[in-house]
Amino acid sequence: MTKQNYIFIGSPIITKELFRKVLRSLNNYSCKPNGGLWASKYTSPYHISDWYSYLIDKKEIAFYKNLSSASMFTLKDDANILVINDYETVLNLIAKFPSIHQKLSYYESPEIPVEQKIFSFEELTKYYDGVYVDYDHFRFSNSTDIFNSWSVNSLLLFNLDCIESFSPVSIDFDISKFFSTRFYLPHLDIDNIKESKKVEKPSEEHSKLEIITKEMFLERMDDYYNYQFEDYDEYFSTLTGNANLCTQKIIESEKQLLHNIILNLANYNLKISDEIVARNIVLNYLSQYLDSDAKRISSLPKSKVKTPKYYKC
Predict the structure, then answer these.
(1) Can you tell me the distance from the alpha carbon of 312 to that of 203, in angstroms, rounded to the nearest whole number?
(2) Which of 46, 75, 217, 236 has a Cα at 20 to 30 A from 298?
(3) Cα–chain-centroid distance for residue 89?
């Protein structure tokens, strides 16, 4: 039986150097999680995937998205992927894995509208390798709004260890033809798919930055060890502010480690900024810290903020 191929748009490599753990929304209003690896089913050389079709349909996206490279991958036989394709599944997940972040931060009213109620993706990562969301079902069912921003049927991976292998692929995407030629269609170069690869372990430099990040983050949080936060907003603002400062500090003080990581990624034809590398590592630790501090979080008063707010980090 042929395995399903999935495609990750925008990068010729799947790497733990850039992977970011799933994290709660960095705002007090939306339902979509941050982080993870987002992909969709590969369909054909000219359609490529539902997500790719969505991107090129939104023509303005073509100017700032890398639409000429991708990674095609398959999952291991034992990959534990939760399929979410009906509202009953959503209700069961909300009951079993309620979102403390939404409960404590949602700005609009004391009661979260039923169509906006979401479960904790962070908790799901402890039991599953990822989720596959049947967006088409929810788009037509009107049972919930929580997947409205997903746009297409989507695979969201919580870790990369469930990937069997991936292959870098090239997509013929000529932006001048795309806007000027009526019948031009971007297409995947099926005859030149590169040899399959395994997802590699993080580099030594990456592991060092993880240690530095943890030490830096905890040092900055020492002042809050016995601090009584006014509400969840003050708590989450403090943590995300700390994360933002740690990112900037790492960019300033760990230039050589970041440079080595970026050089290594360049060998795979991937251009990336030091800010993205540093930020991903910091947000990974933020995710870890939030999980370890779950008991304190559950005792915090609900946020008093009554307007939409984004927590920058």
Answers:
(1) 28
(2) 217
(3) 22
Q: Which phi and psi (to 5°) does residue 128 adopt? A: -130, 160
> pLDDT by residue (tens digit) across 147-157?
999 999 999 99
CA distance 70 to 68: 7
Question: pLDDT band at 175, cuts 50/70/90?
Answer: confident
Residue 259 pLDDT level (bands cut at 50, 70, 90): very high
Least confident of 59-68, 189-198, 226-235: 59-68
Using an 8 Å Cβ cutoff, are 52 and 7 in contact?
yes
Compute the Cα dihedral for 34, 36, 37, 43 and give only its sign: negative
Beta bridge mates, 42: 49
Q: Quote the percentage of the chain above a pLDDT of 90.
A: 81
Single out the residue of 17, 13, 60 nearest to residue 277, CA to CA. 17
Reported pTM? 0.94
